[in-house]
Fold:
Amino acid sequence: MSTPPTAESLPLAPGEGASQEVWEAAVAAVLRKSGRLTGADPDSAAWGALTRTTLDGIPVLPLGTPQTAAEVPDTGFPGQAPFTRGATATRPFGAWDIRARFEDPDAELTAQHVTEDLENGVTSLWLVLGEAGIAIESLDTVLEPVLLDLAPVVLDAPEQPVRAASEFVRHLVHRGVQPAPGTNLGANPIGHRDKRPMAKEVVRDVADLAVREGLRAITVDGTAVHDRGGSDLQELAYTIAAGAEYLRLLAQAGHDPSTAAGLIEFRYAATAEQFPTIAKFRAARRLWARVLELSHVEPELRGQSQHAVTSRPMMTRYDPYVNMLRTTVAAFSAGVGGAAAVTVLPFDEPLGLPESFSRRIARNTSSLLVSESHVAEVTDPAGGSHAVERLTEDLAVAAWDLFTRVEETGGLIHDLKDGSWDRAIAEVVSRRRAQVARRERPLTGLSEFPQVAETLPQRRAYPVPRDVVRNGADFEAMRDQPATTPVLVATMGTVAQHTARATFLTNLLTAGGITARTIGATADVEEVLAAYRGEAVVALAGADRAYADWGADLVTALRAAGAQHVVLAGAPVDGVEVDDHAALGLDALAFLHRTRERLGVGTSTEVAQ
Structure:
């Protein structure tokens, strides 16, 4: 039997002996050492061990090869059909549009934030108007310092889209300004439950204003699905279906397909899952180009205008500074995926209205990626990657299938009315919650490596509560109601023997709002009893050998001293009768709820929003 090649001996250049079989052998050898493969597993099992899947069951490969992308259709060139590689051949000015979101109802303060952002890197504005943001009558105050011929403005007024559009146009006319390209009146009645019955009238009125003034009229907002917990596949199918509905409504309002296509912009969520995000933006362009092809739009007009927003559900209220890392990866992925505009939400967004510091960090994230890292210099840098091309193709095909099923059942508005989307999204939310509970989707600072003592930044509340299902909501709910009594973590053996399991336990308990008091003992039950202070719950952490040698005696002694619930870190050990176990792969959420019940503290069953 030949010796498997090492990573150092693998040639990198094609034609020098590298092959898929060689890679499999080298990777399988490493996986066997770590216990992820057995000696009986073939080398080819390395693919399954390293391949992860999205919530939709689409595989994300660990490595792309020509074979994995052999059936992927030709993606062409940037700026050409099918537009997978980019809506335009190059980025304007070698960068993406850095778009900041404004929703603070304090118009004077918002005007200050607008000025600060525009003077320090932001290139376009996203204004939330109405109940959840800026009063429409305050538009003049907010826009007064803005050079509207240079900075595009995108409106977001779900309750009164026509009034907001009319007021904005009035402001333009009053100032005698020709608005910057990309300015969008932002109507989206399909995405707002109360406006769906009026969609035809809203689209007609806003489109008339937009065509007259040379603006965009419609925003198809995929974050409406994402924020409620929907998957990438659902977000793609929803936006393409909504776009098709808007094309029909615009046609009814008298606009030809090519004009209608130019009135629509798409908004997508960008997450810290790097490759699925890159593939989603690429797949979205291909899907929309196909819709416009079927609508007989001229080929050069089939590119999709994309606005990326860093994900709200991925952010956490606890240890919010980690959100800076999440949004950086998300912004990078959106930029690499070809988004024309990118909004990085401030790291404190889950806590309330962002302030100047967090807004600065948000805008600088894009500025650093564009100006320091030069990420935008290359159009479609992921193009040609076999793994990314495969993932893009799989996402596009699955989304098109879902889109066509929606069309066959009567269109998106019909499905939204009958609750089909609500039920489908609820299923995805349930799957994600289960994965987060088992920490298969770890959340740094929340479900993993939480801070023992943390003071959260204080922010002013939003005018209207957020309708966002955050990925870490279940863990946040426990942190919101911390246990008032600690768990005793008793270590057994030397520091080297117990450190890993003790650290695992204390981090796990902290993630559930439970304080751990740790004591150490080398090999003596009496040492533990001497430090015991009557805690109802005791957790033991040590090596399997220590458990076998004196674990049973320690459990018996602790119960006699008053311990009501004893937990063992690791797998069950013969002869050591405990009430619960905590080991890698457990349902952490269920374990924490059981432990909290023993401590006499419950958790609200309502998912935190």
Summary: The radius of gyration is 28 Å.
